[in-house]
Design a protein that fits this description.
OB fold (Dihydrolipoamide Acetyltransferase, E2P); 4 domains; eight-stranded mixed beta sheet; 48% helix; globular
């Protein structure tokens, strides 16, 4: 008892709590910056371990196994029979052997975007394997894994899997995107509210057994810890269960610890368990919003008013987090949450539990989910309230958050005015500060070039997946182009030019137009291929660019100088781009025939050339290089592409003419600032 009293006195000291938090933050920074030690290396070709998870998709399966370390691997099915065979073998808990080629997870090749390497580090995965073969060694004998597999198999509905297991991977992408844009995605993370509902259900059952209250509590905690062990654990899930356990212990055992102490303990435990949670958006959403609601939320006699207050508080506190991670906020989410908070907490989540226990009611559950999805998709089409902000240095987001907390604590109008002025300045920052630039975006084996000046922007090509290249991303626009545009504070494209109908140039035009504001869309001259015909069908306002047609983008002037050709590549739109401080020639997939025509008809001495067809030897003739005399050549090309671009002949020609060159596969996204002639590579070589 004396020991407990001493511990209470120590934990009630502000100095102790602050010291612990500072120490944990320092330890966290040290842990995430230390070199990673792994048992396996890039020469490892075979790993045996326990299968922790498997996700089967149309053409592949992605698995995680735990050997001496965790390894994630992807296997592409060769036939339908191959897929059926592996479906039977890949039961969680089985001992399996995977063979294949080990690689490092990719880091982001465009600044401000999702870093896959950091994401996997959070899962304690440091290497990934391109699997050639999976062999089942033993069936699982573990009751834990058998139970976990049964639960995961039973929770096959994407929303039951999300609300009960914390796995949102099977919710349709367009729906998941609408949740995020409507500002309601936080409601789909397992949180304290769900744990309270589960605890309440368990407590009611246990009370009927006439056990002592403390014994009931111990059983509930054991059940919740077991539940935690089968979840796809995230920072928000861990925060939810830690808050529940710590606040419950404080109440049941009369510890009399302050709320700030319990919060500090929860943060400490979270970061000691996994320091990489500090990168996770869920960590910041969960802790910041929870702390705000604990300290500043006052219950009202009227439920609707309380709901409005909590929705407003959650929105206000989430602003800096949303802006840092997603570059946008939706003011209308305050109103949307008035419907979605009670709908999800009182209907969808309880219905998920009931449907999991009694699958016979799933048809009724699907009606509820239909209401959820349809309403969110409809609201996502409403642009009112959606505001995009450019990414700025981290310190400014910390300042914004500090001002929000200060305002909530003092309620002073002057502080609110400072906050609004700061956000206003942040919103208009691109038009005040942003320099003119040309950005060759790393879209893998494809082309996409962004031109920006004076608040105006043009995109030349979108990139896109070539159908037969299974390893190439098919979501370039979603995960690269749109987030990049938003991070730069670009709220619309004035022009989208599609140089020709190859998928690696125009393959994502329809997705981009449907998910981002595009004012004008232009195709090249000449015959229209199947992809171009589909684009015109889906986007009827699409036009064809004219020969020598001129377009203005701020200080940049774009001249389309190619003529109509029968050959698709030769007929690529070629843009001669001028700026008071720079001239650039963008050759798309134009061939040596196109180059000969341009040399004959135009005086094309330029500062920079984006060479044709990803460095293929069908382009970039020696005479073309002698005529244009560029000071720098750019090559947009994918790593390990099946065409072996760029060709050795083209690189030799560039070397012969003493023309330096940069490739996206080595440099990532490349940015040119005309005024300073600065060239920035997003991969630090």
């Amino acid at each position: 008892m004396q020991l407990m009293n001493k511990l209470k006195i120590i934990l009630q000291s502000n100095y102790v709590i602050i010291s612990i938090l500072i120490l944990v933050i320092l330890i966290t920074i040290l842990r995430i910056n230390l070199p990673v030690k792994t048992t396996y290396n890039l020469n490892t070709t075979k790993v045996t371990g326990i299968l922790l998870s498997s996700k089967i998709e149309e053409e592949k399966v992605t698995i995680i196994i735990k050997g001496k370390d965790k390894i994630q691997g992807t296997y592409y099915f060769k036939t339908k029979q191959d897929k059926k065979k592996y479906k039977k073998q890949l039961e969680v808990g089985n001992k399996v052997t995977i063979t294949g080629k080990m690689t490092l997870p990719k880091t982001n090749t465009t600044k401000n975007l999702f870093n896959y390497q950091e994401y996997l580090k959070k899962e304690k995965i440091y290497l990934i394997m391109q699997i050639e073969k999976i062999t089942k060694e033993e069936d699982t004998i573990s009751l834990f894994y058998k139970l976990k597999d049964k639960i995961e198999t039973r929770a096959k509905n994407p929303y039951i899997k999300s609300f009960l297991l914390g796995d949102q991977s099977e919710i349709k992408e367009e729906v998941k995107t609408s949740f995020q844009k409507n500002g309601i995605s936080h409601l789909f993370a397992i949180s304290g509210m769900q744990f309270i509902i589960i605890e309440d259900c368990l407590s009611r059952i246990l009370k009927k057994l006439n056990l002592k209250e403390k014994n009931n509590f111990k059983i509930v905690i054991i059940c919740l810890l077991f539940y935690l062990s089968i979840l796809n654990m995230t920072a928000s899930i861990l925060r939810g269960i830690l808050f529940f356990i710590l606040f419950s212990l404080n109440r049941y055992w009369n510890l009399a610890l302050a709320k700030k102490t319990l919060i500090a303990i929860a943060i400490t435990i979270t970061l000691l368990i996994n320091p990489y949670y500090i990168y996770e958006v869920g960590f910041w959403y969960s802790y910041i919003i929870s702390i705000g609601l604990i300290y500043f939320m006052k219950e009202d006699a009227y439920y609707l008013i309380s709901l409005l207050k909590s929705s407003y508080l959650a929105f206000l506190l989430s602003i800096p987090i949303s802006l840092y991670y997603f570059y946008e906020i939706n003011i209308a989410s305050i109103l949307y949450n008035l419907f979605y908070i009670p709908f999800i907490n009182m209907i969808v989540f309880p219905a998920s539990i009931i449907t999991f226990l009694f699958p016979v009611v799933e048809p009724l559950y699907n009606i509820v989910i239909k209401v959820l999805e349809t309403s969110s998709l409809y609201l996502n089409n409403i642009n009112f309230g959606k505001l995009i902000f450019a990414r700025i240095p981290l310190i400014f987001y910390i300042v914004e958050l500090s001002i929000i907390f200060l305002y909530l604590k003092t309620k002073k109008k002057k502080i609110l005015l400072v906050l609004l002025l700061g956000l206003g300045l942040h919103y208009y920052l691109p038009s005040i500060y942003q320099k003119d630039f040309i950005k060759m975006i790393d879209v893998g084996q494809g082309d996409s070039i962004l031109i920006y000046s004076k608040g105006k922007s043009s995109l030349i090509d979108t990139g896109g997946k070539v159908a037969y290249d299974a390893n190439e991303s098919s979501t370039i626009t979603k995960y690269t182009t749109i987030p990049l545009l938003k991070s730069l504070g670009i709220r619309k494209l004035n022009y989208l030019f599609l140089t020709h109908g190859d998928k690696d140039h125009a393959g994502e035009a329809i997705y981009l137009e449907k998910n981002f504001q595009v004012d004008n869309i232009y195709l090249n001259l000449g015959q229209q291929q199947a992809l171009e015909q589909n684009i015109r069908k889906e986007i009827p306002r699409t036009k064809q660019v004219g020969q020598e047609e001129i377009f203005q983008t701020g200080n940049f002037t774009l001249y389309q100088i190619n003529k109509k050709w029968e050959d698709e590549n030769a007929g690529s739109s070629v843009f001669y781009v001028t700026h008071p401080d720079l001239t650039v020639l963008l050759m798309a997939d134009a061939t040596t025939k196109t180059e000969a025509y341009l040399q004959k008809n135009y005086n094309l001495k330029v500062d920079i050339v984006k060479i044709g067809h990803h460095g293929s030897n069908t382009s970039t003739s020696l005479s073309f290089l002698k005529k244009t005399k560029p000071r720098l050549a750019l090559i947009s090309v994918g790593e390990n592409n099946r065409y072996h671009h760029p060709s050795k002949e083209v690189l030799d020609r560039l070397s012969t003419q003493n023309i330096p060159y940069l490739q996206t596969k080595a440099s990532g996204t490349i940015t040119i600032y005309p005024q300073t002639e600065e060239v920035v590579e997003d991969i630090d070589n």
